Amino acid sequence: GKENVDSRHSRGRGGDTTRFHTLNVAQPVRFSRKCPTGWHHYEGTASCYRVYLNGENYWDAVQTCQRVNASLATFTADQELRFILAQEWDLEEKTFVSKDQRRFWVGYQYVITNRNCSLEGHWEVAYKGSSEVFLPPDPIFASAMSEKENILCGQLQCFHFPTLRHHGLHSWFAENCYEKSAFLCKRSQTCVDIKDNIVDEGYYFTPKGNDPCLSCTCHNGEPEMCVAALCERPQGCQQYRKDPKECCKFTCLDP
To answer: What are the coiled-coil residue ranges (predicted)?
Structure first.
């Protein structure tokens, strides 16, 4: 645990008393922030999710996700999809869907294979990032299509009302890829330092928490191989305040 002490005593090998001064005792730290600000974290896939409400066509949405090291979301299991449906995504007045029914571009495309009596086809993953992605059921065809269109883009519809969200009610749409829509990006969890900066893989950083003297290595979005520094109390100052975000930085409060 953390403690403030002026001095502590311990016995050396020769029986002599050794005296040393310390301010903090190293302690385990719980790391809570694994996503950038504005993203939602899901532990089951170690991923971060964010809905962009500014309407873009499918191809522009793909590029917007890529600019933030993400891709249009695909899902690996029902539990992950239920997590998405349960979130209260922030709604703005200027949105391209009604407030009770929201549709987002996601990382699937519907390939049309037959146009005889009815449209036939199959879903494919637009982003080849995972071999464990599940494919949606048969879609609802959202709008009239020309005969030249052989590929439609996937939209996930979720609902604003809490009761509907609680039961996981949702629909899948195959839509013209050039329609404008909100979209859902997904990225791997990342390291976030004590000043809310995103840290790249392999770099040293101080995780968010209550110990600014902790230095860790970012590995797969997690702090690893952490080392704690212990600070000597400031000399010649009776009353002082520690800086919560700078290691071994103090403000003297003496008159």
So the answer is: none
